[in-house]
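Entry: N-acetyltransferase domain-containing protein
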Amino acid sequence: MERIPNRLLRATDTHALERMAEAAFANAELIRTTEWAQPDLWFLERQGDAIRGCVGVVWREIVADGVWVRVGGIASLVVVPDARGSGLGKRLLDRALDEIRAMPSVAAGMLLCELNLVPFYQRLGWTRVGGAIRCMQRGTEIDWSGAVMLHAITPSALDHARVLRLNGLPW
Ligand SMILES: CC(C)(COP(=O)(O)OP(=O)(O)OC[C@H]1O[C@@H](n2cnc3c(N)ncnc32)[C@H](O)[C@@H]1OP(=O)(O)O)[C@@H](O)C(=O)NCCC(=O)NCCS
């Protein structure tokens, strides 16, 4: 699996990732219409030149009930349709989480998804956040209407927070 900072992505890979996301989320209204943050880092699984799966990592300081907390965001997890169901999604997620665990002072992995993906992430050890989530969208802070999933790394204010402010675009 390739580890590549976003700023070093080749233009052909950027286009391939955009096309993968467009196809994967064509019927996912919330995902399609949301303005997303760019990942800082990517993990790509290739077969020859073709990307078979990808996941991004976003570094962010968020605020949980007024307390600053560092999280590693998981973004743009996509496996191409003919490679699904063989464990690649789990491997990508595990690799991104390993990267996040290695970050100093990080409290948790965090990701945003549609409600129908909650069972997928729960199966892989993630828990759903109960509190309200605020994030920026087109210059205004809004309430996120999808689900937010957490993978705790160290005990933190995230664990029972009532309001989480993502301090920027969602990922
Ligand atoms: C979600 C996605 C990444 C899963 O990739 P994948 O390679 O098929 O997943 P895996 O084969 O690693 O599956 C891991 C486990 O989750 C289960 N699983 C897979 N998709 C699931 C789903 N939609 N709902 C519930 N469980 C699911 C698998 O059965 C497997 O369980 P097991 O280990 O008990 O057998 C892939 O379906 C995809 O790209 N979907 C479109 C994009 C998307 O929705 N991405 C998530 C954005 S938040």
